[in-house]
Design goal:
Largest sheet: 5 strands, antiparallel
Shape: elongated
Strand order of the largest sheet: 1-5-4-3-2
Radius of gyration: 35 Å
Strand content: 5-15%
Structural class: alpha+beta
Order of helices and strands: HEHHEEEEHHH
Number of strands: 5
Helix content: 55-70%
């Protein structure tokens, strides 16, 4: 009897072929899904990379520039300007100050300073009160200021020292006297830089095969700073 002509054998062979096709299709779907997932992940990493680079671009250039200026601070001359204001408070303000011994400057005095001398003293600046004098330190990026008020005579003395644009940018780099908003901006910028670097490292890993110099260059970027710290930077 010829088994090839047997109906049962033909049906069995047909079912076997269908099963093989199904397994082949499933394998293809799995491979396609895996490939598509890899593309989606890679695409997401690329998106995070360019978004983080766009967010941190200007600040990164600013911090790179000010890193250079801070490193050469002794070689860059400061453009120092000093502004001095001498004035006398009205009698009604002097009388109102005699009743206050602590806290920020009262609103009428801050309004008078702003209107008559263009001095903006924040309510967050707490002066030092004594029996005969009020003394304020008014720090700011790129300079310093102070003001004293004689409670007996009402004499006001204000001095502002400005050290120029480079000093201002350097203080932005250090976060010196820059306020709460800049404090949080530095935190956001730092996070964006970390995302930028980590996603860049992942992209390097994925594309390193056709570029044999990738990992030697990455290693060089790690080894050189460590050697400089170990050999030349001493406590």
């Amino acid at each position: 009897m010829n088994l090839k002509s047997c109906p049962m054998h033909s049906e069995s062979a047909h079912e076997k072929g269908q099963i093989q096709q199904a397994f082949s299709a499933n394998g293809g779907i799995t491979a396609m899904a895996s490939k598509l997932s890899g593309k989606l992940i890679l695409g997401t990493i690329r998106q995070w990379h360019w978004v983080s680079s766009a967010i941190s671009l200007f600040a990164m250039l600013l911090f790179a520039f000010t890193g250079f200026t801070l490193n050469h601070a002794a070689d860059i001359s400061a453009d120092i300007q000093v502004v001095t204001i001498e004035a006398e408070l009205p009698q009604e303000l002097i009388a109102s100050l005699a009743e206050i011994q602590e806290g920020p400057l009262p609103v009428p005095l801050r309004r008078w300073l702003r209107q008559h001398h263009d001095l903006h003293v924040s309510a967050t600046v707490t002066p030092e009160w004594s029996e005969d004098e009020i003394y304020l330190q008014i720090p700011r990026p790129g300079g310093d200021a102070w003001m004293s008020i004689d409670l007996m005579s009402g004499e006001l003395l204000y001095e502002l020292t400005q050290r120029g644009a480079i000093a201002y940018l350097n203080d932005l780099h250090k976060g010196r006297n820059t306020g709460q908003a800049w404090f949080w901006f530095i935190d956001v910028f730092a996070i964006a830089c970390v995302v930028f670097c980590v996603t860049g490292l992942i992209l390097l890993y994925r594309q390193a095969n056709p570029r044999p110099s990738t990992w030697p260059m990455v290693g060089l970027g790690v080894v050189v700073p460590l050697l400089l710290i170990i050999l030349f930077v001493h406590p």
